Amino acid sequence: MCSSDLYYLESEKSKTMNIKKSLNGVTYWTVRNDNSDERWVVFLHGWWRDSRRNFRKSDLFWQQGYSLIFIDARSHGQSQFKLINNGLFYAIDVHKILIHENIKSPIILGTSFGSTAATIYAARYPVQALILEALPNNLISIFHDFYKFLHLPRFLFGWIPYLVIYIQKQS
Fold it and tell me: Could you tell me if 78 and 27 are in contact, meaning their C-beta atoms sit under 8 angstroms apart?
């Protein structure tokens, strides 16, 4: 996190901010609002991003008296590298952190990859509200972006999403 991001959070938010908490290698930040009655908003970032992307988005919720939590996914931002990282594991990590912080039924705001994790989380655990930005909706483009990220040639692996769709239609 660069110093300007930290300055923004410290000057705009509360002095009760806890910097760089970590649970099982997943880094997160909590900002407790003195006006909050244990109302929380959880911010989940997109693929190739980190929590800094959500700092300025949090203003509206902060002004309404919500406490905030920003979670860097595995292998993103300041979280440790983990070989396997997907929306399911992000949702599991979010659940473990919320249990650790004793946060119940939060609002979850997810962007892109974070919205996938938010949807998975909300399907399993109670949430006050779910806000989804740029929710991925095309399996083929998700696979193609993944190949691009790993620098894999599409012509060798491009058939995989079509096989997944075919199998899903058969069942």
Answer: yes
